[in-house]
Every structure is written in structure tokens, then in C-alpha cells.
Design a protein that fits this description.
The protein is of the alpha/beta class. The chain contains 4 helices and 5 strands.
Length: 174
């Protein structure tokens, strides 16, 4: 009986140690793939989050469109707010943020050979895809600073979700 408890404890510690060591290794999706992000707002919050997610997943951010293995053109990011529930005074207390990202994915080899230098204008022949997500937060009209902070945190969470899904779409297209 004592032998069984000792063996179980050793097995439990061994599995826990392996799980701790292996945590996070399944995220390498774009190993050594160079990606160019084309956007109207290259230094926006979503673009920063996307670049960080690409580099965390093993990809390399390139500024040279002709030398990259994949190009992502961010066409449009729509964020809508909608009140879901109301408090006793009739004001919205729970709000849903809905985000839709319109984008195009293409490789350099997908473009016509003659005008590869004008990459952003050539991307129009690819289909525009979209990713949708939504997340809710609670708004307190008596504390506007807290409500604003919750809005910003929810936007960051939406940007992270969209960027992870976009990286997964890039991986599927490889």
C-alpha cells in the first residue's frame, strides 16, 4: 500500500513537471515564415497586436513585400457596440462589442510577375475574407473611468482574439 502511494506521488510530480516544461510549446505556428502586414494604419493598436502575435508564433515580420513568404492586407476593422441589458434607470449596463476584420491573404507567387513592386494595389484580385468575434463588458455610469478601462481591456481582448485567428488562417493557407 505504501509502495502504491509513493509510486502515485512520483508519477504525479513527474507529470506535473513535464506539463510545466511543455506549456506554451504548441503555439509555434509560423516557424521561420516571413509575413508582411499591409494596413492603412501601420502603427494602430490592432496592427501592433497582430505583429506581436505573429512574432510570438514563430513568424518573422518583414517590411519588404517581395521577399516575404506571405502577405496580409488589412482592409477594414469594424467595431460595433450594442447594449444588451439595462439597469433600473434604463441605461445600458452590459454592452457587447462586435468586431469584424476584413482582410486579404496572398503569397508573392500568387501575384502577376510583371508588377510585384506595387503589391498593395495588386492585392485587389484576391477575395476579401472576414473574421468576426464579440465580447461583452459591464458599464457603470456612476464610475466612467472604470467603464472606460473596461472598454479598453475588452478591445485589447478582441484584438488578441482576432490576431490569433488570423495567424491560424495564415497557417492553414501555407
Amino acid at each position: 500500500m505504501m509502495y502504491r502511494c509513493l509510486l502515485t506521488a512520483i508519477l504525479f510530480v513527474g507529470i506535473s513537471a513535464c506539463g510545466f516544461q511543455l506549456r506554451g510549446t504548441g503555439q509555434a505556428l509560423l516557424i521561420n515564415q516571413s509575413v508582411v502586414v499591409i494596413s492603412k494604419t501601420p502603427f494602430g493598436e490592432f496592427e501592433k497586436t497582430l505583429r506581436q502575435t505573429i512574432s510570438e508564433s514563430g513568424g518573422v515580420i518583414s517590411s519588404e513585400p517581395t521577399s516575404s513568404s506571405f502577405n496580409v492586407k488589412l482592409v477594414k476593422l469594424d467595431i460595433e457596440e450594442q447594449g444588451v441589458s439595462r439597469d433600473s434607470s434604463g441605461r445600458a449596463s452590459e454592452i457587447i462589442l462586435r468586431a469584424t476584420l476584413h482582410y486579404q491573404l496572398f503569397r508573392e507567387s500568387d501575384l502577376p510577375a510583371k508588377n510585384k513592386a506595387t503589391l498593395s494595389s495588386q492585392a485587389s484580385f484576391n477575395e476579401v475574407r472576414n473574421i468576426k468575434t464579440s465580447q461583452s463588458y459591464f458599464q457603470d455610469y456612476r464610475n466612467p473611468i472604470s467603464s472606460h478601462n473596461q472598454l479598453k481591456e475588452t478591445q485589447k481582448a478582441i484584438y488578441q482574439i482576432l490576431s490569433r485567428r488570423l495567424v491560424q488562417q495564415i497557417k492553414r493557407s501555407l
